[in-house]
Amino acid sequence: MEAFIENHVLNQILRQAKHVLDAEQRVNDMKVKQEFAYYSLNKAEKAFESLTNPQLELLKPLVSIKNEADFNHFKDSLEPYCIPFQPITEAQLKKLFKKAKKLHPPHLTPDDFLHLTYLSWYDKGSMKKFIVRELGGSVKGLSGSFVPSPQNGICHFCHHMGAVGLFTVDVKTDTKNHNYKALSNYICQDEANCNAHIKDTEKLDFLFDYVRGK
Fold first, then answer.
1. pLDDT in tens, 109-119
2. Residues paired with residue 140 on neighbouring β-strands, in sequence order
3. Residues pairing with 142 in the sheet
């Protein structure tokens, strides 16, 4: 069976698995626990447009999670079927961000690409954040100013409360007159934390579409 689970979908599945574990530990009524477990499985399955029988079988153990060991075993069983982020070289990144005078991308190992919905890093020198996303079979990039916030907030991408910063991209609205329109959102300061919590790519993909004028 080929890999079929994207990172943000894996986060959705594990969230449902965690709900089953929490219910097992907090709810006494066996019937309620069983019904909730199957409800959670159904929500996990709906994260996909369609599933083959082997893929459905892979998800079924979610309803049998009773303790942390079961949860970890279930999580480990999904790992071989996770779609990794497309590895990208520094030379490829320089082509994506031609206007950047100096790029300081993170040094990532193959394991680092296993659980990424997007690749990102913050450059303190330029006070810019760079974001790379695979869309339609090709890799796209965008960059914008990033100002860390002194207060915690909700990330626009992953909807998780934590350390955020104001990310602003300038979009050209009139090529002839060089007019720009700024779009700003608060997003996670920690890219790894964001990738660990993001459960849908709607806001992330909208940002890329907006910048490209779609």
1. 888 888 999 99
2. 133
3. 131
